Amino acid sequence: MIYRRPWHPVPMVLLALSVALHLFTVILYIRLPGRFAALTVFPIWVWGLIGLFLAVACFLFYRARLSLITTLLWTFTILLLSDEARSLGRLGVAPLPHGPPEIYAGSLPLRVITLNCAGRTNPSDAIRGLKPDIIFLQEIQHAYHLKQMVHDLFDGKGDYRYDPQKGCAILVRGTINGEIKVPKYRSQLVSVELSSGRSLQLLNVHLQPAATNLRLFNRSCWQEHTENRRLRQIELSYALSILKQKSAFPRIPAIVAGDFNAPANDVVYRLLEPEFKDAFDAVGTGWANTYHQSLPLLRIDHICGSERLVPIRARTFKLGDSDHRTVVADFVFRN
Description:
Layout: H1 9-31, H2 37-40, H3 44-62, H4 66-81, H5 83-88, E1 110-116, H6 124-127, E2 134-138, H7 146-153, E3 159-163, E4 168-172, E5 174-180, E6 187-194, E7 199-206, H8 219-246, E8 254-259, E9 276-278, H9 279-283, E10 301-306, E11 309-317, E12 326-333
Parallel strand pairs: 1-2, 7-8
Antiparallel strand pairs: 1-12, 2-4, 3-4, 5-6, 6-7, 8-10, 9-10, 11-12
């Protein structure tokens, strides 16, 4: 006589919920509709963990075989779509060291750093050993240490521009030849000539602060996140239009970097395509997220280079007393 486990509605309901959540999540994170911005502000693995919990519970308590398929489905989705999985999956790639840039193809690469100082840190000591060529800083309250930073980090052979109204600064190993004003928003655009003789356009961005209302049961939460995303798109679109219309880009390569105040899956980054490539997306290793420094769950700080800049290494570091982690990326020029 063959024993058959009695049918039970609970595992079927839990599995149906898990599969429905999976389908809804995949569509949501691929299309990123504005009215659901309150949901996609979370990393996709947050919803993945809920779906996995439902599937694993079905197997542990009811031995439902279909739960194994659902578990594999969620696992594959998290590995494929989560931003963190890409950099963690580069196990065979040597990470960017906490030290000066290493020789690549016979020459030193261009090292770029971006850091939100959070209004309370002097990053000079923290980043001195990294030997950067370009530094993007946001949320600087006092500029008195910037001149000293240029002297210390670039051996006196550097330059900087600071906008006190926006709290942003760009420091370079070389000379800043000009600055193009970006009205209204916290963005900064300069033309530089590096000590190597190469010319670059640098756009430092600090976009609209993120919406922090997570009361999903409240209609105002959904409206706030939708409007917040829309304003960030307007802001970045405007800054990029200034770069494309009033600077020498794309004849001269450019870097867009800073604090975007949006998770890595946000639709705002699509405005950078196809001209710019995120260095960490392309070659980053280790844990990618930059905020909050003590428990980084979101990657909101980015370094993006134009087509003539090839990223070769990227990494985040816990430096200084800012609440953001520092992003470091190495580039080589495409001939």
